[in-house]
Amino acid sequence: MDFDFTLGSDPKGDFRQSDEFQDIKGVIHQRLVERIEDLSVDFASWPAHVTQRFVQQEVEDFVANHRAPLNMSDIQAIVKELTDELTGLGPLQELMDDDAVADILVNGYKEVFIEKNGLLQRSRVRFIDNRHLMRIIQRMIAPLGRRVDEGSPMVDARLPNGGRLNVIIPPVSLNGPVLSIRKFRAKPLQASDMLAYGTLNQEMLDFLAQATRMRCNILISGGTGSGKTSFLNMLAQFIPDGERVITIEDAAELQLLHEHVVRLESRPGGLENVAEVTPRDLLRNSLRMRPDRIIVGEVRGGEAVDMLQAMNTGHDGSMSTIHTNSPRECMHRLEMLLHFGGWQGSEFNLRRQIAGAVDLIVQLARLPSGARRVMSISEITGMQDDVVAMQELYRFDPGPNGRDGVFSRPCQPQSRKLAKLGQGIGRSAGD
């Protein structure tokens, strides 16, 4: 086969991003698959360097025999991609190996976006076609015991390394197969990392650490990508040794650095007559497991009723995240979730339940610059005029560029549970 592709066909001069380059790579890939079938090779038993050498030889022979318009740099790029294809996740492998990449978002075979350093950007990675993308998707979900096809076009699952994967395919998706991956940090962020990134200052950290030790019930609120799970991981480091911690999540993401943790994960129903296990089921069961603290990865449904009842009946020190954009909105959302969960009491008793259960709301946000900040720490002070009352103990005022800013401390804690935390912590909270 002779190729008649020219560099001039790509107006940007980026041959490796062009359809012509992808066509050549696709032909070489098909030839490699045929050679593997002929040889009956099991690459799983081969060392990585042997596999790479085999691919290198096959690609060079193919290019020489078919006069493909590839220079040595192009050949090396194809060798790497085809080696990843045989031993890993193809074009996604380099993104999965890059610790700076937090999210991988694939919108059909040509569009791959990543979040890096808090900012969304387009990647140079692409697939040959949608069939190629589907092969990689099937390779990712097969070990998880899940399937995706026209009859079941959506999958949400946890990867073996702890990351989270979501797939939606045609006809539901009009962009072709859409893949979203939330990667897992190999090493959870420490308190020192949060300080170095400017997420909060030392005084705020000392306050929250002491609040955690004193068994305050804490909700961590924020929007998508604001760092709620990472912040919850960090706070849990201050739970004293000797306490039994039970975590409940839809998809297990928490990495608590604690000696006694029991991790529970919900399970969707409908797969081969498998019964659904909801976070609410797990939360109710956890109360029979002698927990000292219950940590709900994210409260988003009827489990809010059981969580707040647990907080009000002897399980102080519990924590959860919630998807809201302000502390006041957090209260409104909790009320809504309690109604969804079948709350049978009056509005007044519902709000009194919230006021009696929650001690602190930590509000996080991701700024336009990509930086993540604790925007406020608010204390629930009780009921006032039939409304849950709160006051802001700390806040962050962003600077003009969205990155610089000042932390301040407007108020001292008022509630009896938190008043002691105001003692011995300096009033200055400036950067």
TrEMBL record:
One Pfam family, please name it: T2SSE
* PANTHER family assigned to the protein according to its UniProt record, in alphabetical order: TWITCHING MOTILITY PROTEIN PILT (PTHR30486), TYPE II_IV SECRETION SYSTEM ATPASE (PTHR30486:SF15)
Q: Which residues form a coiled coil?
A: none
Protein name stated in the entry: CpaF family protein
- Record SUPFAM superfamilies: P-loop containing nucleoside triphosphate hydrolases
Entry's InterPro entries?
P-loop_NTPase, T2SS/T4SS_dom, T4SS_GSP_E_ATPase
Q: Which organism is it from?
A: Azonexus hydrophilus
Q: Look up the domain of life of the source.
A: Bacteria
According to the record, the residues making up region (Disordered) are 409-431
The portions of this protein that span the membrane are: none
All copies of domain Bacterial type II secretion system protein E, residue ranges: 86-370
